[in-house]
Design a protein that fits this description.
With 242 residues, the chain is of the alpha/beta class. The protein has a single domain, classed as 3-Layer(aba) Sandwich (Rossmann fold), CATH 3.40.50. 35% of the residues lie in helices and 24% in strands. The strands form two sheets. A six-stranded mixed β-sheet has the order 6-7-8-3-9-10, with helices on both faces. A four-stranded antiparallel β-sheet has the order 2-1-4-5, with helices on one face. A hairpin with a 2-residue loop joins β9 and β10. The longest helix has 14 residues. The two termini are 31 Å apart. The protein binds adenosine-5'-triphosphate. Adenosine-5'-triphosphate binds next to β2 and α1. One of its GO terms (molecular function) is ATP binding. Belongs to the ABC transporter superfamily. It holds the Pfam family ABC_tran. This is ABC transporter ATP-binding protein.
């Protein structure tokens, strides 16, 4: 296996007295799509929050490109190459598609992100999701849910991530647009960006990823090649019991 790009090592996380993660060992390699599945409350969002600096964790517990980043301020973690497509998309309403995207471009400038030759630009994004070019002057609240999700992905990509973290991309969207969005993932990973996909739809998670992890009550209960794990193994890891 190539060296992991992003990894966690015995990751623990708490909300006050409540321990939400118990020793998570997780990794994703460059260019890989890894899915994270599990029932409500399993700890998937908490894992994402721990990775992105929204929840304080010990420095060595999260590593990006061999560098310990656990607990760094969220903007430092973005600067080092982690960007998130948040659940619920959180776009700026009252602003057009392109203005929403320009906010991310400005943020990238503020963070002095390195401009690589293959950096994401508006042009490259519009090639990935052509509908966004057609709708570039449209206020985001007038878009369909799927189109809004494309804007949210675009905004994260303009932060030039080495790892893109996606929280429930498919939530509340029609199957057709979900397929369209998932079909774009290989174009994102082609240049080496890794994707972590938190997904409620197990079939979709399995189809779109090379490997998957299942979580239950703050622990990883299954990991393996997505094409190889059986429905029975997933059901047991998802619901627990023997
Ligand atoms: P969902 O699919 O519902 O988002 P999840 O797998 O992402 O579920 P988390 O949201 O990470 O699960 O929740 C993990 C545990 O941490 C749950 O027991 C939840 O109640 C608890 N939890 C989550 N956020 C907080 C918080 N802000 N304060 C206290 N406990 C929390």
């Amino acid at each position: 296996m190539s060296a992991p790009l992003l990894s966690t090592h015995g990751l623990q996380a708490r909300y006050g007295d409540f321990q939400a993660l118990f020793g998570i060992d997780f990794h994703v390699a460059a260019g890989e799509v890894v899915a994270l599945i599990g029932a409500n409350g399993a700890g998937k969002s908490t894992l994402l929050r721990s990775l992105t600096g929204l929840l304080p964790v010990a420095r060595p517990m999260v590593q990006l490109g061999g560098e310990a980043i656990g607990g760094l301020p969220a903007h430092e973690i973005v600067r080092r190459g982690l960007a998130m497509v948040p659940e619920g998309r959180r776009l700026f309403t009252g602003m057009s598609v392109e203005d929403n995207l320009r906010v991310a471009i400005d943020q990238a400038k503020t963070l002095a992100l390195r401009a690589a030759a293959d950096a994401w630009t508006l042009e490259r994004l519009y090639a990935l999701f052509p509908i966004l070019r057609d709708k570039r002057r449209t206020p985001v609240e007038s878009l369909s849910g799927g189109q809004q999700q494309m804007v949210a992905i675009g905004r994260a990509l303009l932060l030039q991530p080495r790892v893109l973290l996606c929280d429930e991309l498919s939530l509340g969207l029609a199957p057709k647009v979900v397929r369209e969005i998932h079909a774009a993932l290989p174009q994102i990973t082609a240049a080496g960006t890794a994707i972590v996909l938190v997904e409620q739809d197990v079939g979709l998670a399995q189809h779109s990823s090379q490997r998957l992890y299942c979580m239950l009550e703050g622990r990883i209960t299954l990991q393996g090649a997505s094409a190889a794990v059986t429905r029975e193994a997933i059901a047991q890891a998802y619901f627990g019991g023997s």
